[in-house]
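input
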Amino acid sequence: MKKYIALSLIALGLGCSSEQTDKVLLEKDKIALVKSLTSDKIVVWKFGKIGLRASAVRDTTMPEYQKHIKELNSVSQTLSKMSPGQKDIPVTDMILMYRDYRNIKNFVIETDEDIFPPLMDGLTLTYGSPAEKKNFINNAPKRSNEDKLYLQNMEHAILSILVLATRDLGTEVSLYECSKTQPDQLPDSEMKTLLQFVRGFLFFSNKFFYLSEDEISSNIKWLEKNKEVDLPYTRALFNWSKFSNEQSRVAFHGLNHLFRGFDRTMMKRDIDQERALDDFEAFLADAHELGIQNETVWSVESFVYIKRGKNKEAIASLTKLKASPLMSSAEKESIQKSIDYLQERDPDAKLNGVYDKYFVAKIASKYMMATLAKVDWEKVLRDNKVSHAEEILTTIAQFKHISAEMQKMTSTETITEQGKSLKDKGGKILDKVSDFLK
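output
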């Protein structure tokens, strides 16, 4: 509660500011982000993760653990009975899990999951082989604060990408994981710049444009400063295997300018609109240098040419875009309207939204999601020696199912029906959940 009061006071102070500077608008986005991370889907996700992470607690005297030791043990025990990815969860287990969820929901909302051991430790003790569990218990890793911070940052980063790529749990959970990363606590590296790009993309997708701009601006500066950096993970992520290292850097530099341009087109100040065109032109310069011709390039070319009053060039790019099989019938119809309009209009007239910034951003976002969906994430995790790669992916699928079942559990009618069904099956099962049904 104190945190939200403090945020409200800060927001009030920012709201009274007459000058909407970059800094003020960035701070407003930070406050809005914190307020947005309270949906039921996020809380259920945190509940499952805290259960897994708490199973690896070695210091059982920690107050947060002691306060809810019964429920936390119950969650981890229920999860440990399931095989990774199991979807046919017994009704009794789901009801017991919901009981625990209901009992500690406020604790989950208010608690920073990072006070617990890393998720990898919890996965080892929950889904590891008997030998792995025994080895962990006898030789629990002793990590410095810096090592733990780095590991959980990587976990949040990996999960933010995986959840986004699957689309199963929505951008809400991905945004939550993204918000938990702390890039400023990581050393400058390719992994950090990839993380910041993903954060920028997610912030953009959730309309936190100033947060997104801040992440991506940091990336652009780093890429321009480190022109000799090797980018193997970037090539793997975007399937740029045919690119040399320098070509990969140019392509990634352009991609960052592209999404910063999208951020700026969505902002309200005139200076942001002009900055957006500068970003798009930087993206196009990089794309043309590499000889890239695709839907994103054509859509951005069209947008820039229209804004610059270059009708002939805009029509040429729109014509290429219309021929793309990725465009739906409705999109092709919209593009043709734009072409007809440009052929007939006065060069100084406005297009008035027939082909606008939202259309361009939609095409590029579609490309980005399609790129992420094509990645063999299990292979990427294994190649980078991420432990329990299979368990991570199957646990995400399992959490999706648990989340859906939890949503059903919130319905009093559903709970009543399940209670009656259990009662019909016999007293022993009913005894297990009697405290829940009271």
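quick obs: Residues 33-181+388-437 form one domain.
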